[in-house]
Amino acid sequence: MDADVVADQAEWIDVCALDDIRPKAAVCALVGRRQVAIFRPGTAPALYALDNIDPFSQASVLSRGIMGDRNGVPKIASPIFKQSFDLRTGICLDDAAVRVAAFPVRVRDGRVQVKVDVQLDSPSVTK
Ligand code: FES
Fold first, then answer.
1. What is the pTM of this model?
2. What does pLDDT average to in each consecutive run of 10 residues of the chain (127 residues)?
């Protein structure tokens, strides 16, 4: 899936309050038909949003992974087979040919918003 195409068809969608996501935690939100994992790695309101489905296991689990960083790259490690994904881009750090969709995410007036094409039926997982 071409990220630019997604952005063109997508709108900012209100998901939850920033306070609903504890620092160093993540949530999974159903946005339209997409499961979006939203990560808050630190106490700053910096957020990342990825497709929640782990392409290696096909399980909806990335929001339950372990956050960390590898050489300064913020990452999430899938709880199933432990592959790590760059929180900024969705690119797998263990296999660069694999990525999950990364969505724009922002905070407005204390509310978390993501930009997702809710029309898409299937998650844009490429492998
Ligand atoms: S993510 Fe399902 S048991 Fe750990």
1. 0.83
2. 56 93 94 93 86 97 96 95 97 97 95 82 45
| CB-based contacts of 99, cutoff 8 Å, min separation 6 | 55, 85, 89, 90, 91, 92, 126
Distance 28 CA to ligand 1 centre (A): 13
Pairing of strands 105-108, 84-86: unpaired
| Contacting residues for 72 by C-beta, under 8 A, at least 6 apart | none
Does residue 111's CB lie within 6 angstroms of at least one atom of ligand 1?
Answer: no
- Strand, helix or coil for residue 82: coil
Q: Assess contact for 5 and 18: CB atoms under 8 A.
A: no
